[in-house]
Design brief:
alpha+beta; four-stranded antiparallel sheet; 181 residues; three-stranded antiparallel sheet
Length: 181
């Protein structure tokens, strides 16, 4: 791991906590688009709770936000056996095939890791509370609309931010969020 990139070090922890919170809220399996939509809300609402977020750059795609750093962390957690692929099917989007993937936390495997994290002195217990409260709100969104929720966010849908571009959300010391291209 690159010590100059604390977000890359914190990303697997955030992904594990996000999946744990979603599971606690009754979302046992989360589709990849829903996962990234939930990540978007954790990013934009973290400053309200006075929290930083390690999510990194967002790829603005037609279907919604995509976080390359979090996706890489999610893939790594699958490889480590802490997360499982719950569903994998093909999706024909007008001749352009795409994999439809859903993930689920492996609760028994992840429990000791989460317990260890909870005991770390630099882990902020507010993060888990924030993610869980947000997960319960996210779970209230109808399942077929969860991945659409980020698309109606004023910041995401602002004119001038083209699709297929990386957007960097950078929090400053005052907790405000800025967009840099």
């Amino acid at each position: 791991r690159d010590p100059e990139s604390p977000g890359e070090t914190r990303a697997p922890v955030r992904v594990l906590r996000m999946l744990s919170a979603l599971s606690a809220a009754g979302v046992e399996e989360v589709g990849v688009q829903d996962f990234h939509a939930f990540a978007f809300f954790t990013e934009v609402l973290a400053p309200v709770w006075g929290l930083d977020s390690p999510t990194g750059d967002i790829l603005k795609e037609e279907g919604g936000p995509h976080y390359p750093m979090l996706q890489a962390a999610l893939d790594r957690l699958v490889g480590l056996g802490l997360v499982r692929v719950a569903r994998l099917t093909g999706d024909d989007r007008g001749g352009r095939w795409r994999l439809d993937v859903a993930f689920a936390i492996r609760a028994q495997a992840a429990a000791p890791v989460l317990a260890l994290l909870d005991g770390m002195p630099d882990e902020d217990p507010t993060v888990a509370e924030f993610l869980e409260q947000l997960a319960f709100s996210f779970a209230d969104i109808p399942a077929d609309r969860r991945d659409d929720a980020a698309l109606v966010d004023a910041l995401w849908s602002a004119a001038g931010y083209d699709e297929n571009r990386l957007i960097e959300f950078a929090g400053d010391r005052d907790g405000r969020t800025a967009i840099d291209f």
